[in-house]
Design a protein that fits this description.
The chain is of the alpha+beta class. The protein has 14 helices and 22 strands. The strands form 8 sheets. It has a 4-stranded antiparallel β-sheet with strand order 2-1-3-14, with no helix packed on it. It is globular. It binds zinc ion (2 copies). One zinc ion (ZN) binds next to loops. The site of one zinc ion has 6 residues, from helix 4.
Length: 426
């Protein structure tokens, strides 16, 4: 039996057993649904359901590999063409996925292969360091560290941006762990539902800090003097000032590391030295709000901009922009299973975020790992990828493994490896 049939049966048993726990999204009848089956990598969409019961029946009967519903609302979600659906508006969806940005732990667990020259390595290079080709095959893995980064981004998104700068309300937010490498947040509010794609892009630009104009925030050079930001201006000015203050309060050696880091400030030795010399002065200037005197020797407007862009990069949220801008996107359905991990897409209240730990969650209600059995059932698998990194799941370490290795592992981890496509049953 092909392994996908086995996984499909497992997913089916889950959907049968856990029907009552699968939530109904708001305005259910107006949502479009989409599914990717096990047999073929195609999205079957333009489906509507009259009731959550019908959806659950569909999940049991067809048991897809992936299940999605729209952020948009339609009069006729099942209509086959977009014009005929009768668009009524779209929730604002913000997706944060570790796939799209660098985290240091990727140097340990993300593996790339160049099809062109055969070179392979770890991390997240933009192109093959051997031949310069851009197309790399990658095996992306998960770990607590990068999932924590994603979680912290969602927390900062809510408490540093959406609440203070947009006046949005917690009660209108729906958060979900995606079942793999990220989280998404959905804002359900009548005014926001009417926003155009361009307006959504503006919101996202603000949140990422992309294209930020320092000049319009008051940062400029006049008669050879640098005019900085004011602490009193809320929004980005305040965020930047706080971040600079945080940096200036660090020990010199740590500042030096950050300023020279090629993924952070990337400043040269002269500028770093100069910054360190002026560290205390700048801190007192900022604290006293003397905004007309941000003087550091050797820091002209260009170096300041380079410095500030690196500051903004640390504050801005790593949003997957197209997801927010495209009003016809489908997002994973809460309570459904992610076909590449076997983990549940877990809805979370903002208050539950802090303690939520998807790879080792203590509250059963919130646990995305649904195939962990009471009895320690194990499975025999053969590894079919050249290399599989270490995985930490439910407090246990597994691997690393090499191609051809035969392993015997607990059922929930076996399901994960099979869904990831790096092993087969023997
Ligand atoms: Zn290459
Ligand atoms: Zn990681």
């Amino acid at each position: 039996m092909a392994d996908y049939k086995y996984l499909k049966r497992l997913f089916q048993a889950y959907y049968k057993e856990k029907q009552s726990e699968i939530p109904a999204v708001n305005l259910f009848k107006n949502r479009e649904f989409g599914f990717i089956p096990w047999e073929k990598q195609i999205m079957i969409r333009h489906i509507g359901f009259n009731s959550p019961t019908n959806l659950k029946e569909y999940l049991v009967r067809n048991t897809p590999k992936h299940a999605y519903s729209s952020g948009s609302l339609y009069f006729q979600p099942e209509n086959q063409n977009m014009e005929g659906k009768g668009y009524r508006g779209c929730d604002l969806i913000i997706d944060i996925d570790v796939d799209h940005f660098y985290t240091p732990c990727k140097d340990d667990h993300d593996i790339w292969y160049c099809k062109e020259c055969g070179k392979s390595g770890k991390g997240m290079p933009e192109k093959c360091p051997g031949c310069g080709k851009l197309k790399l095959k990658t095996l992306n893995w998960i770990c607590e560290d990068c999932l924590n980064v994603a979680k912290n981004q969602i927390i900062r998104l809510i408490y540093d941006f959406l609440l203070p700068d947009f006046g949005m309300e917690i009660a209108e937010m729906k958060i979900a762990f995606s079942g793999h490498r990220g989280y998404h947040l959905k804002i359900e509010n009548d005014a926001i539902r009417t926003l155009s794609s361009d307006e959504r892009r503006e919101i996202v630009d603000y949140i990422t800090g992309e294209n930020i104009s320092f000049e319009s925030l008051g940062f400029q050079e006049r008669s050879g003097r640098i005019y900085g930001f004011s602490r009193e201006n809320i929004g980005w000015s305040q965020k930047i000032i706080r971040k600079i203050e945080e940096l200036l309060r660090k020990p010199k050696s740590e500042i030096e590391n950050l300023l020279s880091n090629s993924r952070m400030f990337k400043l040269n030795q002269n500028h770093i030295q100069s910054f360190l010399n002026y560290k205390e002065d700048l801190l007192s200037i900022i604290l006293n709000d003397q905004k007309n005197n941000w003087a550091i020797e050797g820091f002209g407007l260009t170096i300041w901009h380079k410095f500030l862009k690196a500051i903004v990069k640390q504050i801005g949220i790593e949003v997957d922009v197209p997801v927010s801008v495209d009003i016809h996107r489908l997002i994973r359905y809460p309570g459904s299973l992610h076909g590449k991990t076997g983990f549940k897409v877990q809805e979370l209240h903002p208050d539950e975020l802090d303690d939520f730990n998807p790879l080792d969650e203590v509250q059963e209600r919130l646990d995305p790992i649904v195939f962990k059995s009471e009895k320690e059932i194990t499975q025999k698998l053969e590894i079919i990828e050249p290399e599989v990194p270490v995985t930490k799941l439910k407090g246990e370490h597994y691997g690393p493994y090499m191609k051809g290795e035969i392993i015997e592992v607990p059922n929930h981890f076996a399901v994960f490896l099979l869904c990831k496509g790096v092993a087969k049953t023997v």
